[in-house]
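Hi C.,

You asked whether I'd gotten around to modeling the 101-residue construct. I have! Everything is below, sequence then structure, no commentary in between.
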Amino acid sequence: MTIIFPCVGGLATLTEIEARATELWASLAFDETAKAALKRDGLALDAMRLTGPCPFRFTLADADEHALLSVPDRSDADDLLDLWRIYFQRRLVPMTGREAA
């Protein structure tokens, strides 16, 4: 599955989003308050490995408009994409994004 989201500004904006996502990923492993809130939202955090390098991979879909997000080579990819939608996307990307399978 791939998530498509708006990325006005092209590569520079995508690079910023990727850097900020990496920072959020690193802090999430230690943020017990955020993890408790995510569990209340119904996310199965126990099924995910929240350590190691940020699993999200970003690619520009078209010039200055959209980007693609994927989680390659992870058995928990679907759960991580849900985590993106619930935790990361609302912090990093305008809420006007579209999703595609």
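If it helps when you're writing up: DSSP finds three helices and four strands in the chain.

Thanks,
B.
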